[in-house]
Each structure stands twice: as structure tokens, then as C-alpha cells.
Design brief:
The chain contains twelve helices and 14 strands. By secondary structure, the chain is of the alpha/beta class. It has two domains: about 200 residues, 3-Layer(aba) Sandwich (D-Maltodextrin-Binding Protein, domain 2), CATH 3.40.190.150; about 120 residues, Periplasmic binding protein-like II (D-Maltodextrin-Binding Protein, domain 2).
Amino acid sequence: MFKRVVSLVMVVATATLLVACGGGQASSTKGAGASGSGTQAGDTVAEVKWPKNVEIIVPAGAGGDTDFNARLLAQELSAKLPSNFVVSNVNGNGGATGTRQVKDAKNDGSSVVFYHTAFLVNKASGATDYGFDAYEFASIAGLSAGNVVTVNSSLGINTLEELYNYTKENPGKLKMAAQTGATSYAVAMQMKNAGFDIHIVDAGSAADRLAALLGGHVDVILAAYGSIKDYVKEGTLVPLAMDGENDLVVEEEGIDVKAMINLGYDINLPFYYFFAFPKGTDPALVDGFNAAVKDIVENNTEYQGKIYTSYYQQPVFLPKEEGLAKFEEVDGLLKDVDFNAK
């Protein structure tokens, strides 16, 4: 991985130029299959018996980054494939409720889970007893720009080093909100293992954690920058560092938030989004689905612009084997996390 320097101006300008040249959003007709993706998906789509409706299960609440990505892709998939893709939010047990529902669903292509790295955290923390081998893994369809270690400006802390020193001088005083069994908890534990003397409290979903920070009930949270940027602009919240492998640099907004691992702390948890079908789903259906997702992610400039303007994401698609290899790397990062520590 390398540091990504992202610029909204560049994305918008590129999208405008491509549209002007006739190279905008890849044209898509129901049943036509994916085009321009390096895979001849038209034949695959024609051969597969596609269900009338495909339910995309999102094991997270509505309104967050995972839900946003799923709904945007569902809209584009409905236009490209001969099925109607609908999103259902099935939250609970750090995401385990939703992933189990798809694992146990019929393998006729009518159910697919859209989730992220928390799937591995669920298993590592004991919330689930199954992994990707319980599914027909499809692909990685996105990479979060990362979550931001965020504090209230009233705390008077403006850098990650200042946060570290404060927790050393005031052991256990600061409360960091997380969701048990989810990625926020894994990163909080990585921080604790790295020497941040914080008290981790279960505060629910991303929206709940943000509300808790704004209300003064907790002192530190992890949040997608897109969800806190307005509070940062008005001076209410302070972004300290990213939890993934990449810095977040938004030149037009004067944002330059370094990744914790790039600041010398052994803290890193990449946040990949993925699709997976129930075990035994027709491989031809999964292949056709992947071809459509690949075409959307890599060629649809409208889609690319939306994921950037909302969550500063760059388009990422990795097919089955490459996607599983990435998650194997992420799983290795979780081996050193003690989920039983207090």
C-alpha cells in the first residue's frame, strides 16, 4: 500500500472531461452484463438464471459508510443485471447477525452480504465461529479511506502524541467509544496495546458514538471523516490520525491527517468492503455479478465521484483470490489483539 493523496477537484475535473468525451458512466442495460471490465460477462449473464430480486444484507445501521456503499452499488447493479437489488440493514452483535443470516440463506443468488473487515474481527473476538470458507466469496468492492481518531476540541488535544501523553499522565481517565466485536473495538485495543491508557466503552454504532462524543459522554471515537468534517470545520471536533495504512490529504480543505502507523505507532487495520454469497451459489452467477461490480467500480465515473465526495474513497476492486489474500493479511494484523483485555 502507498499513501493516497486525494483531491476532489481532480476527480470532478476528470469525470467532467470523460463525460464530455462520451466516456462517462458505462452505459448499462438490464441483462446486458458488464462491459469494459476485461471479462466477457454478457454470455455469463444470459446463461445464468437470475432471481427477480436480490437482497443485499448490510450488517450495519442505515446512514453510515457501509450502508452508503451498498446502496450506491445496488442502484448501479439493478441497472446492469436482470435482477432488482435491494438493501436491508440487519444490525446486531457487531454485524454477526447479518452475516449469519446470509450464511444460512438459500443459495439461489437471492441473498448476498455486503460487509467489511469487521467480519474478521467478529471471528477473532469470538462473536462468530465461521469465516469466508462458509460462503462463496465474490470480491472486494471498496476500500475505506480509513476512520479518524477524533476528540472534542474542548479536551485541548491537537495531535496523536498529545493524546498518548495525556493518557499516560491520566491513566484510564479518557473513555474511548467502540462497538464490541467490531473494527472500532479492534483498533481501540490496538491503541491500548500500543500504550494508550484509555478506558474502552461499548457505545454502539458509528452514529451512536458520534452522538456520544458530541454530548460529552465519551472522549475519543473513530469515525469516517465524511461524517465529522462539518464539525471539524466549525472547530467542535479535532481529527488526530487515521487507523488504516494511508494518510488522508484533502488539499482543497486543508486536511492532512497522518495514519497512526506512519506516525510510528503499531496500529493499522485496513477497512475493505466485500460481497459474499451463501455457500453453493452458482459460480457462473457469482462470476457475472463480479464482472458487473468490476465494471461499475473501475469505469463508472459517476460512481467514483460519489464515493469520493461522500467518504473520500478511491475506487478499489479485487476479485475472489486477490480479495481473500488481502483479508488474510488483515487477519494477521488481528492475531496480536487481545480481545479479552479490559
